[in-house]
Amino acid sequence: MRLSCAAAMIAAMTLPCVLHSAAAQTACATGAPLAGLVRDTTLAIIPGASVQVDGGKAVTSGSDGRYRFPCVAPGKHTLHVTADSFAVLDMAVTTPRPAELNLTLQPGDVKTTVDVSTDAEEIEQPSATSTGASKTITSKQLSTLADDPDDLLRELQQLSAASGGSPSAATVAVDGFDNGEGGTHLPPKSSIAYIKVNPDLFSAEYRNPPFGGGRIEIYTKPGQSTFHGALFMTNSSSFMNARDPFSTAPASLGKQRYGFELTGPIRKKGSDFFTSLEHRDISNAAVVNAVGVNAAGVQTPILQTVAAPQHMFIGNLKTDWQLGEKNTLIASFDHWSNDRPNFNVGGTNLPENGYDNSQYDENLHLALVTTISPKIMHEGRIGMEWDGYTYAPNSTAPQVSVAGAFTGGGSALGAAHEHEIWSSIIDDIIIQTKNHLIKVGIQPEFVHLNTYSPTNFNGVYTFGGGTTSTGQTLTGIQQYVNALNGAANGSPTSFNNTTGSPYVEVFQFRNALFVQDDWNIRPNVHFSSGVRYYVQEKPSITAAVQPRFGFSYTPDKKATWNLHAHAGMFAGRWGAHGWESMVFYNGTDRSVNTVYTPTCAGAFDPTTCQPLSTGSVIRSVRTLQPGFRETYWSMENLGFSKTLPQKFTLSGDYYITQMWHYARTQNINSPTNDLPTGPRPYGANLNILQMQSSGRGYGNVVFVGLTNQSLKKVQFFAGAVRVDIIDNTDDNQYFTPQTTGVTAGEYARRDNQGLWQIFGNATVHLPEKIQFSANYNGTGLQAYNVTTGFDNNGDGDFNDRPQYAVAGTPLCSVNPKASPCGYNTPWGELVASGGVGSLSRDKGEMPWTFFLDTNLQRTFNLTKNTKADHPQTLMVNLRSSNVLNHLNASAVGSVLGSPNFGQAYAANPGRRVEVGLRYSF
């Protein structure tokens, strides 16, 4: 089936290309435009100048002095520029470039030679569709970033957050292909030629709005005409690394990474290859920081350090073929696999709640590029992705969850596995005229999921606490103590399980068409406009028309100022995994059952209790609202960049946004008297979780950045972004409000959304050719929701928030048997029930996180002849992540009255240090 699908798609992609009969020149799918102005020493424009790249077909600067090559392959090139009455200019250029390349010709007949690299002194001027958050990471800058793909991804995600989105939500594209739904995996760093962060986010070519997480575009290296390669390894041992913050015992903490890369010709001319393979063994530990309790009510900290290693393979193979003068074919295949025992262990999750997580991801990419004429180019791409996972639980016993204390028993995910096939076609035509660059494209996608998911088939007992018949308020841990003793008020709050077939199959089709026009009105005035149309099935979206506009103006002759503005509409997209949950809970193939306060005879034993036979069974189903509409965002932007003395560049951007028809879920059949078995509008004992397009949101984002890449000894970039996005959906289509139909307290910042993101990187050139670099990022005031663990309104969702205590309510620390009793919090005295009003959603704020990663490296030349075909070098580096060993909390106790309420109980790893060697030839 894989081969037949691939063959059909190759035919669909290739057919338009072979129909082109016009003469063509060499092009490259991984290339980038090279453009700018031709001027004299007085900065006057020079029309009619001839510009050649590597002796190829010349382009002529227009009446506005502008020249443009639509696609230049990454690497080193020679630019040859001639014009009447001016000296010939030969310039060594490395592409891609983060900015336009303006050419200055000298008067007279003397030949001029200049060397310009991508890291040379230049100013990155925004285009009409880019903003101040856009950045190109070139080869020299890339060498300062982490070698480990996971650490590199984190550093890139933080840079992409300059657009205002959550770092983890960034879209990653490799050689033009977005990562599929199986996850985000980077190619080996050694295979990367350059990276674009947040390019042209208002372009109609892209789906996500800037605050949707940003965009990271990775372009891999082409093969070389002569053989080159490298062997590399890194090592990190336990004695080099800091113990994790909540660990009380030593653990095996280390990393061994090794691999190779090789590039060279396949035939003498016209084809080459690049391949790399690496293996990583990571010794890590999961730290359990929970609270246990015995039948006597004695609470005991559960502090365990559990081995959680990773075993990973990453490899890729890429080849370029010149098919005559008309076409260039680029084919690549990459593989990623990872095995992670004891996954999901840590924090309040006990070891028996973990599972072995084995994942794989394979991609086949084909691209065919035809340059129909110097001004028209066609790009056809096809991508096939096969990915999946297998979960092997440490235990299949029923799960037991005590709110805010621990989660034990078996994993609720069960022995699951999934296989996904994701295919995409990207077909673009690029047309270059005198003042316009027009791009027209289509982006169909097909997704097939085949999943075996016995989620909750083992059952989950929840001890969330609640109010007794006598009015006493119990926490989840007090309720659990009563259960261990077989005492009154010891029944679990609920038992939930799923029965039926664990098999789920989903097919989904999505497609987008776009037109984008970048218009150079004058050399200093640019205007962009475009429209994107999106359609998909499951759910049906057919009216997603999204216009986009951009404007850029450089008011001064020396181009030290740039002002830009943008406006656009963006439409939401449903992923196949999101729809899979709708199918899973359709109420036909599976039954999701809940019993409130089930009775278990004697002392609580989850393996012998028969909860479904002790109470009324309430079923839950998911449905889609009739007339469900697609989500829309509107977004506007104003920004600037200013070149200061000494070539410092200051930039700033301000965004505002509105969101309509945001997807969220409400239980439209909630009980009318707050009792789970009470009367309901559409039948008894049934939760109807309806997906609705009733959500709303709004917000603003502010970005400020300062950079200087021109100083001799130090180059740096620093920035900060303030993200204040408010909505009543938590950016989650399955989010449900505390009470159906009530919006009070629901408008808030999103869970885990930081109000502030700060980031920066710097490279320092030390004596003896030693290079020191640092990458820093921090997140401040991440929001989290404060709950009680209760379901007071009986709607099946344990998301009730605390209430404000009435005057005179005693504290639980003074009189724990009072009903109610309260807790002192940063928001005043709160009670689980019996108070007034309700705390707003996501009022909690996590501590700041700070990550400082450093690298110290030195490259030794092993070949004395600098012009040798195979120069040999040895690079030695010492790298550290979280070098300050700052406690970066990842979870805070959020259940009122629980033992760890308001306290961090899980964190990201402490300081890690590794030594690396890289031999290149």
TrEMBL record:
Keyword Transport: no
One MF term in the entry's GO annotations: carboxypeptidase activity
GO cellular component, one term: cell outer membrane
Compartment(s): Cell outer membrane
Domain TonB-dependent transporter Oar-like beta-barrel as annotated: residue spans: 311-539, 544-913
UniProt keyword annotations, A-Z: Carboxypeptidase, Cell outer membrane, Hydrolase, Membrane, Protease, Signal
Protein's UniProt name: Carboxypeptidase regulatory-like domain-containing protein
Native source species: Bryocella elongata
